[in-house]
Amino acid sequence: MSLLEVRGLGKRYVTKRSFFGRAVDRLVAVDDVSFSVEAGETFAVVGESGAGKSTTGRLVLRLIEPDRGSIVFDGTDVGSLSRRDFRPYRRRMQMVFQDAYGSLDPRVTVHDSVAEPLYIHFRTGRDERLAKAAELLERVGLGRHLFDRYPGELSGGQLQRIAIARALTLNPSLIVCDEPVAALDVSIRAQVLNLMKDLQEQLGLTYLFISHDLSLVEAIADRIAVMYQGRIVEQGTVEEIFGNP
Ligand code: ADP
Ligand code: ADP
Fold first, then answer.
1. Is a pLDDT exceeding 80 seen at residue 212?
2. Which atom of ligand 1 is closest in space to residue 68's alpha carbon?
3. Residue-averaged pLDDT of the chain
4. Model-level pTM?
5. Is the CB–ligand 1 distance for residue 69 below 6 Å?
6. Ligand 2 site, CB within 6 A
7. In what order do the strands lie in the sheet with 174-178?
8. Band of the pLDDT at 39, cuts 50, 70, 90?
9. 204: exposed, middle or buried (C-beta count within 10 Å: 0-12, 13-18, 19+)?
């Protein structure tokens, strides 16, 4: 059984409304998209800007709601659950965004930011929360002297490590990574990608990896879906997509 199975996913955005609020124009962002992601693999969704990759990633986590299609996570049709019943599944799927700074609260220290999901979901006590955060921050290679800093004081690479640590706080199995290294200096990219690879092996993580960068996904993915104008136009292993016939 796949960890994630997406079938016939569809999403349109209303791009224009009349004076009275009626939708007069829509854009099909995701059109009949189906794929499965196996536990422990890196499944890349690749395509040019505007292809529908981010929308697909957000639909999987129900950050936005699909118009059609099903999302089966670990054998459960999570797309049809109420928001409340979806919560325990939502903890097991986390997202890492391109803009790490934007995904962290600038008024909260690194240490508290990584600990916070435990409070939000389980009301875990402060000592236990901070111990878990410290363990994760060390795991992502952040020095202790940075734990009490604020996001504005840190580099892009450090911020992305922190965003990754925060995504791991609730012990997820699936991480949707939306262009996680696209905003980083080229010299830092390899470091963060190597870290993600190590974490995947150590923690048994599954990545749904969104990227516009073909050579990057060729290097890191097990399987690839190519999106174009909202649809998957090609899908297969790295060898099938990139191999010379
Ligand atoms: P409306 O409610 O505006 O009349 P419909 O939902 O009946 O629109 O759909 C109009 C057309 O758009 C149909 O051909 C339908 O198959 C297609 N469509 C609707 N939603 C999606 C979607 N999310 N992805 C792809 N096509 C869609
Ligand atoms: P990608 O991640 O491949 O760049 P997106 O999923 O972000 O693609 O966008 C797919 C299409 O949907 C694009 O044409 C984009 O402009 C449009 N789009 C994305 N988000 C919205 C939104 N909130 N409202 C209207 N259109 C949107």
1. yes
2. 23
3. 96
4. 0.90
5. no
6. 13, 15, 27, 29, 47, 49-55
7. 93-96, 174-178, 206-211, 42-46, 223-228, 231-237
8. very high
9. exposed
